[in-house]
Amino acid sequence: MHQYAIFVIPEHDAQDTSFWMQVMLGIESALTANGFTLHIQITSSLDDKILNSEVNNCAGIIFAGYGSLPYIDRFRDYNKPIFVLTYEPYNLFPYDTI
């Protein structure tokens, strides 16, 4: 079975390539060392959909940037590990946040 994590980042946050590219490379390196791959999903609006089959088969979801916060609750029912990379705008529990 192919193991992967999904990295979700809004297009406007991803424009800061000097920061987010380093973050993605670090995450990809750590995942690869543990037998996983990274699937990157750049979203352009809240209407973007992540394919259900991709979420169903992933090991977990990493949400990056402030703009990704509206997506988080949409994926809570998938019962996948969720990790958030942003500053805390509200109480994010039960999500792991950095």
Question: What can you see in these coordinates?
Answer:
The protein is an alpha/beta fold. It is 32% helix and 26% strand. Strands 2-1-3-4-5 form a five-stranded parallel beta sheet. The longest helix is centred in the first third of the chain and has 17 residues, at 17-33.
Report the radius of gyration as a whole number of Å: 13 Å
Biggest β-sheet description? 5 strands, parallel
Give the end-to-end Cα distance, rounded to a whole number of Å: 29 Å
Share of helix, binned: 25-40%
Topology as a string of helices (H) and strands (E) = EHHEHEHEE
What does the average pLDDT come to? Answer: 82
Question: What portion of residues belong to β-strands?
Answer: 25-35%
Q: What is the structural class?
A: alpha/beta
- The best one-word shape is globular
Strand order of the largest sheet: 2-1-3-4-5
Count of extended strands: 5
The stretches of 5 or more residues where confidence is low (pLDDT under 50) are: none
| Number of contiguous helices | 4
Detail the topology: elements first, then pairings.
Blueprint: E1 4-10, H1 11-14, H2 17-33, E2 37-43, H3 52-57, E3 60-64, H4 69-72, E4 82-85, E5 96-97
Parallel strand pairs: 1-2, 1-3, 3-4, 4-5
Features:
alpha/beta; 98 residues; 32% helix; single chain; 5-stranded parallel β-sheet
Summarize the structure.
It is built from four helices and five strands; from the N terminus they run βααβαβαββ. It has helices spanning about 10-15, 15-35, 50-55, 70; strands spanning about 5-10, 35-45, 60-65, 80-85, 95.
